[in-house]
Specification:
Number of strands: 0
Structural class: mainly alpha
Order of helices and strands: HHHH
Shape: elongated
């Protein structure tokens, strides 16, 4: 999947979300979207990095401690 395809997928999902709201104003949209995307992103990257947090952090462009905090927040590690 190209970066453009991912962009279009996210865009289509957001347009559908707004249609489903049927005129109701959204609340906390940014936080909702980040939470929806972040967990599967972390799951896939950790799997691809064979659960090596240092490698995963490097791939994500994060500090290892930041990655660890996010993994804990999403209950992906103990």
């Amino acid at each position: 999947m190209s970066q453009n395809a991912l962009h279009e997928c996210v865009r289509a999902s957001l347009e559908s979300y707004f249609q489903d709201l049927n005129g109701t104003d959204p609340a906390g949209l940014h936080d909702m979207l980040v939470k929806a995307v972040e967990k599967p992103l972390l799951e896939v990257v950790m799997e691809q990095a064979q659960h090596n947090q240092s490698r995963a952090a490097q791939w994500l462009g994060l500090n290892r401690n930041t990655l660890r905090k996010k993994l804990l927040e999403h209950k992906l590690i103990d």
